[in-house]
Design a protein that fits this description.
The protein is 71% helix and 0% strand.
Length: 370
C-alpha cells in the first residue's frame, strides 16, 4: 500500500466536510467516491476562488486520471479515454495526458484524432522519444509509411540501440514492399534484444515472403522452443509448410495449434483444407465434426458438412480439393495474406514504466502545483 500511495500521489487531509471526505477516499485509492465527494464543491460555487475549490478540481482531475490508468492497463480503451478527457477538463495544463489520450484514440481506430493528441505533446516536448515513436505508429496506421519511415530513421540516427524503433521501421518498410530492408531491420532489433519475440515472428514471415524458407523456419522454430504453447506460431509454420507443398508437416503444426487453442478457427479451417489436399476425406469430415462442436452455427462449416453427405469421392479436382470445398472455404491464409498483415493498424499496448514515470512527476503530488 505504501508503494501505491507514493505512486498515485498521497496528499494531506483538509478541513471542509466535502473536501475532507474527498481526500479521505482519494488517499485510499477510492477514486470514484472521491470524485463524488468533490463534486458539490465544484458545481455549487463555480465562481469560488477559494483554495479548497481549486484543490477539489485539481484532485478530481487526478482521480479521473488514475481511473483512466486502471482502465488503460486493463485495455479498456474507451473507458480510459473518457476518464483521461475528464482529467484534462479539470487540469488542462497537464498536457502530457494527451499522450495517453492519443494511445486510446489509436486503439479504438481514431488515428487522425490520435495524431492530433500526439502533436500537442510534440509541441511542448519535441524531444520526447516515446511520443515520436507513437507518431510514427500513427503514420503507419494512416498508411503513410514513408512518413513513419522518416521518423524511425531520424530516431535511429541518435539512438541506434532502440530495438523497438528498428522493429517498427521494419513494419513500415515491409508495408512499402521493401522486403529485404525490412528483414535487416528486424535482424537489428534481434541483435539488440534476442528475446524480442514479435521481431523474430515478423522476421520469419518476411523471410518466407522472400522465399527463404529455411531461415524462416529457423526463426519460427526458435520461438516455438522458447514458447511451445504459442499457437499462432504453430499455425504460421503450418501455413508456410502448406505453401511449400509439405502438407503432412503442415497438418502436424496445425494440429498443435488446435491442441493449444481448440477455438482457433483459422487453424481448424486450414486443417480441413490440408486433409482435402491429401485426399483424406474421412479425416476432413472428422475435423469438420470437431470444428462444428466449437462453432455449431458457422455457415461455412455447415455447408461443407452438408456437401460431404452428398459427395462422390471419385469427383475431385486435380489437386484433390473438391471444387465445392474450395468455393465454400477458400484456400485459407496464404503468404500473400500474411504480407498484407503488415498493413493492418497497430495497437499500442500499455507501457507500465511510462505510467510509473507519469505518476512519479512532482506536479501530480504537490498541492502548490495548483
Amino acid at each position: 500500500m505504501g508503494f501505491l500511495n507514493k505512486l498515485l500521489g498521497y496528499i494531506p487531509k483538509q478541513v471542509s466536510r466535502d473536501y475532507k471526505d474527498g481526500i479521505h477516499f482519494y488517499n485510499r485509492l477510492k477514486y470514484t467516491e472521491a470524485i463524488k465527494s468533490f463534486q458539490p464543491m465544484i458545481t455549487d460555487k463555480p465562481e469560488s476562488k477559494t483554495l479548497e475549490h481549486k484543490l477539489a478540481r485539481f484532485y478530481s482531475g487526478l482521480a479521473y486520471r488514475n481511473l483512466g490508468v486502471v482502465q488503460f492497463a486493463r485495455k479498456n480503451n474507451e473507458q480510459a479515454l473518457f476518464n483521461f478527457k475528464k482529467a484534462m477538463e479539470y487540469n488542462p495544463d497537464h498536457i502530457d495526458l494527451n499522450y495517453f489520450i492519443g494511445i486510446c484514440l489509436n486503439n479504438i481506430g481514431d488515428f487522425q484524432g490520435a495524431m492530433e493528441s500526439f502533436k500537442i505533446v510534440h509541441g511542448t516536448e519535441p524531444w520526447n522519444i516515446p511520443n515520436k515513436l507513437k507518431m510514427a505508429i500513427i503514420f503507419h496506421n494512416l498508411e503513410k509509411w514513408d512518413n513513419a519511415e522518416e521518423i524511425h530513421r531520424s530516431l535511429l540516427e541518435k539512438n541506434p540501440n532502440f530495438a523497438d524503433v528498428h522493429f517498427h521501421l521494419g513494419l513500415s518498410l515491409m508495408s512499402q514492399g521493401k522486403t529485404s530492408e525490412a528483414s535487416e531491420s528486424f535482424k537489428k532489433a534481434l541483435l539488440i534484444n534476442p528475446n524480442y519475440v514479435s521481431a523474430r515472428l515478423k522476421l520469419g514471415i518476411t523471410l518466407a515472403c522472400m522465399g527463404k524458407y529455411d531461415e524462416a523456419f529457423e526463426n519460427l522454430n526458435t520461438i516455438i522452443k522458447q514458447n511451445p504453447k504459442y499457437a499462432d506460431v504453430h499455425y504460421l509454420v503450418g501455413v508456410i509448410k502448406e505453401e511449400c507443398n509439405e502438407t503432412e508437416e503442415a497438418i502436424k503444426h496445425l494440429r498443435q495449434a488446435i491442441n493449444i487453442s481448440p477455438k482457433f478457427k483459422n487453424a481448424l479451417v486450414k486443417l480441413i483444407i490440408c486433409y482435402c489436399q491429401l485426399g483424406k476425406i474421412d479425416a476432413a469430415q472428422k475435423q469438420i465434426k470437431e470444428a462444428l462442436e466449437v462453432y455449431p452455427d458457422d455457415k461455412r462449416l455447415n455447408s461443407v458438412k452438408k456437401f460431404f453427405k452428398l459427395f462422390d469421392p471419385s469427383l475431385r479436382s486435380s489437386n484433390n480439393i473438391p471444387e465445392e470445398i474450395k468455393r465454400i472455404l477458400g484456400n485459407g491464409l496464404s503468404l500473400r495474406a500474411l504480407r498484407d498483415e503488415f498493413h493492418k493498424g497497430l495497437d499500442i499496448m500499455p507501457n507500465f514504466s511510462e505510467i510509473i514515470m507519469m505518476f512519479s512527476s512532482s506536479r501530480y503530488a504537490k498541492e502548490d502545483s495548483v
